[in-house]
Write a structure and sequence with these properties.
about 260 residues; Rossmann fold; single chain
């Protein structure tokens, strides 16, 4: 499934009723089976744009549409959140099955699909555990498995590894890349981390400070499958340097606004 964002803007009222322009005339495309990262300084509207692609927010202007064959009973998108967003009273298996229940999938089919995804995400043996019994990395695996269980056309990820320690984050990046190799999902991935964006994505779309506008669409010339050894390759370093040069001033200005 192809995602097309055309001239999208978003404004809202803050707590004092003042108009805030979050995004201005943003256009981008995510091709079918492509992994695209969305990156920019804090407050640039990355998560707002992701929520609009998910249908959780409506644009103030412009349009978002999907191009491709839509399978009956299959959601266009599923979201993996930063804060895990698991149901604490549900086991791993029950959390993974939640979206399937909402779609009315019979119990037998739900169980088979959950077992597939639990195996794919390295959670075998933890099916009966509750979220509080799992590490942060394992909780995020449950979130990924739950999103994949409904077989969305597009997987949306909102800084899914930002709450993890550095070692766990690196391991989860590698696991997600392995999952992408097997599923070839179209992915739109929000992150603040330049190296993470370049390591994982085919392209990095860079947004300006608020109101977010597209500064550049930076291709990452790394082969797939990606490996940890590629972190020092010239193509990744060059892409990361270009992105940092684009957003360095934007990030400083955004920080100055936030502390003013």
């Amino acid at each position: 499934m192809r995602v097309v964002v055309e001239g999208v803007s978003k404004s809202y009222a803050d707590r004092r009723g003042r108009a805030v322009e979050a995004l201005r005339d943003v256009s981008l495309t995510v091709e079918a089976e492509e992994f695209v990262a969305l990156l920019g300084p804090s407050g640039c509207g990355k998560s707002t744009l992701l929520n609009m692609v998910a249908g959780l927010l409506a644009p103030s202007g412009g349009a978002i549409h999907f191009e491709g064959v839509e399978a009956p009973g299959r959601p266009l998108t599923a979201m993996v959140f930063q804060e895990f967003a698991l149901f604490p009273w549900r086991t791993v298996r029950a959390n993974v099955e939640f979206g399937l229940e909402e779609l009315g999938i019979p119990a037998g089919a739900r169980g088979r699909r959950a077992r597939e995804l639990i195996e794919l995400t390295g959670l075998a043996g933890f099916e009966a555990k509750y979220p509080h019994q799992l590490s942060g990395g394992m909780r995020q695996r449950v979130g990924i498995a739950r999103a994949l269980a409904v077989d969305p056309s597009v997987l949306l990820m909102d800084e899914p590894f930002s709450a993890l320690d550095a070692q766990t984050r690196q391991l989860m990046q590698e696991e997600l890349l392995a999952i992408w190799e097997r599923t070839r999902k179209t992915i739109l991935y929000v992150t603040h981390n330049i190296q993470e964006a370049c390591y994982m994505a085919d392209r990095v779309v860079v947004l300006s400070r608020r109101p977010g506008r597209v500064l550049a669409d930076v291709p990452v010339g790394l082969a797939r499958p990606r490996t940890e050894a590629m972190l020092g390759e010239a193509a990744l370093v060059a892409a990361a340097d270009r992105i940092w040069s684009l957003i360095k001033r934007e990030a400083r200005d955004a920080l100055a606004e936030a502390t003013a």
